Amino acid sequence: MTNRTQCPTVRSMVNSFRDVIGLWPSLSAAAQETGASYEQVKKWRERDSIPGQWWLSVVQAAARRQIRLSVEDLALIAADGGDRADPEKVAS
Description:
It is a single chain. By secondary structure, this protein is mostly helical. The chain has one domain (17-83). The protein has helices at 17-21, 27-34, 38-47, 55-64, 71-79, 87-91. The longest helix is centred in the middle third of the chain and has 10 residues, at 38-47. The chain is globular. The protein starts with 16 loop residues before the first helix and ends with a helix.
C-alpha cells in the first residue's frame, strides 16, 4: 500500500474566480506562481474572471501548492458567469 497525501479538493470552497485567486496568500504569490504579472492577477480579481489561456497555469500552480483544482472546476465557474450559485443564498 502506498502512503500518499491526498490534495484537498476545492470544489466546495471555490465559487468564483475571486475565490480561486484567494487560494494564494497574496496577489504577488499568485502572479509569481502562475507566471502572470501582478497587474494581470489584480485585474482577474477585479473582473472575477481568469482568461482561458491562463487556466492551465493556474491549475498547475495550485497543484504545486497541493490544491486540487481542475480546468473543469474553472469551466464550471465560467459557465455560471464567474460566480457559482451559493446554495445557502439560494435557499434563503
